[in-house]
Design a protein that fits this description.
Blueprint: H1 2-32, H2 39-49, H3 56-76, H4 80-95, H5 97-100, H6 102-105, H7 113-119, H8 122-135, E1 140-141, E2 147-148
Antiparallel strand pairs: 1-2
Helix pairs in contact: 1-3, 1-8, 2-3, 3-4, 4-8
């Protein structure tokens, strides 16, 4: 059992970082290809957050490129702290439709499919926080007091 927990302690956050990166790469790529079910929501959100300065195709392209940049930094571990800062800002934007479009997201008090799509991103926030903690120096310690880098 110790062997398994030691392996998990040593590798789990790296696996979380890489998988989070792959999710962002995939979401960015499908937006870039113009086949994301969240395109309209992404464009409306960017348009609203930028007070109309970035809209339409430019908003979608910007969203796709930012998501892909986050994905690359997380997947490779290069420029990780920069990627995590961008991730933090992006996650605020990703969650903002819950506030910006609350009436549309919860028309009868229950979440729409779009609201559920956004709400699941709470998991991305938590994963980002774990990865950021590690990148800033936090360490997991096993029961025997050994640090798992």
């Amino acid at each position: 059992m110790e062997r398994g927990t030691g392996w998990l302690a040593h590798h789990s956050i790296t696996l979380l970082r890489v998988s989070l990166g792959l999710v962002f790469l995939a979401f960015g790529a499908i937006k870039l290809a113009g086949v994301s079910p969240a395109e309209d929501l992404a464009v409306r959100t960017v348009d609203t957050l930028t007070l109309g300065m970035v809209s339409g195709d430019a908003a979608l392209l910007m969203t796709a490129l930012v998501e892909m940049a986050i994905g690359v930094t997380l997947t490779t571990g290069r420029m990780l702290k920069t990627g995590l800062v961008i991730l933090g800002g992006s996650l605020v934007a990703i969650m903002s439709p819950l506030v910006l479009f609350f009436g549309e997201m919860f028309p009868d008090g229950a979440p729409t499919l779009a609201a559920q799509y956004v709400l699941k991103d709470i998991i991305l926030v938590a994963a980002g926080l774990v990865v950021a903690a590690r990148a800033l120096g936090a360490r997991m310690v096993t029961d025997d007091g050994r640090s798992a880098h």
